[in-house]
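BUG: 3D viewer hangs when loading the predicted structure for this chain

Environment: internal workstation, default settings.
Expected: structure renders.
Actual: progress bar stalls at 90%.

Input used:
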Amino acid sequence: RHPAGASPLLPARFVRLPVHLFSRKTQMNKLTLKDLSLTGKRVLMRVDFNVPQSKDGGIADDSRIRAALPSIQYVLEHGASLILMSHLGRPKGKDPSLSLAPCAKRLSELLHKPVAMAPDCIGPQVEALAQKLEPGQVLLLENLRFHPAEEEPEKDPSFVKSLARLGDIYINDAFGTAHRAHASTAVIASYFPGRSAAGLLMEKEIVQLSHLIAAPKRPFYAVIGGAKISTKLGVIEQLLTRVDALFLGGGMVYTLLKAQGIPIGDSICEDSQLEVAKKIGQSPKIHLPKDLVIADAVRSDAHARTVGLREGIPAGWQGVDIGLQTVSAWAPQLIKGATVFWNGPLGVTEVPPFAKGTQGIAEALTSCKGTTIVGGGDSVAAIEQMGLGNRFTHLSTGGGAALEFLEFGHLPGIDALSDVL
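Structure tokens produced before the viewer hung:
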């Protein structure tokens, strides 16, 4: 398998390689930000400012901007100027509603200094702004995805060349997009031989997730949720070779239940995955929910009740959460884990009554004395919303990237960086 977005300009040799090729006593064999001399240099840094937006066009959650602050501040404190680049959303052309200008404003507030906003991410005017930067100054480029060549670099190689001209050093601190072989996340590194490195956030992500691959302390448990089993088959198969127990919830469970002949009513199901789901469900390491919350609609005011797993779900109803019996059964075992990895919500968390299972497991894991790592996405959002973020060892900034890293052991955005000599 190749990750989505793999580019012919950067062949992605996605075989499963030994983790020692990517770690050295929990340190990567890739250059990191602290390995480079920055004084007087223009640093071109890829960050992940793909932030949720509020209805008025502002920023609903600035956690991704905050996550980039350590690398940003390190660069500025070491006598360099800084050019930041990111994408935002999925624009079709130059969409003003997806401008990064609000991010420049918020970053300026967090840094307590001006952050200049470029009119575009390439072009003579942008190059002039970059050239004029003094040490300690920051320029944020406009949304990279305003240009189709960001996601399809092979269609216009001049785009990545124009980006590369802006800096002397390239830093990738956007772990959340490291599984994409896009212009700014992977292809660009080839223009900075010996001068492309992982940012502090990227390094932290790789170090933390590498523990799950190399030698996790045992017992090692994983909790996987989310809507579709098809998107997580690879990581489930890999985890089954490593974990002591794997707890499955969320929408994917109903495909597993149907494969076992259990009625699932109108629940989400991927019929094309029934055969593989049946095989996965036979593993002695798999723990399915003991009970399920079902509803006659996915709305806060819907009729809802709890059913036992073997009872199944009647027609006209659909599964929306794991039940309290499941939380009570899973929690005592998870708490005893020396290592626990969690990715994906266990219910329809955007509807408050159906978020209780996810919240229950989150609360239970705060009592775990082992290493607790959450793999990005909606599960992290639920934890942050509950105010429990500081009670976990690590909250990953990349859901898809975290899963692909666990599955393959490496990612295009990491592979492209300069090796330690």
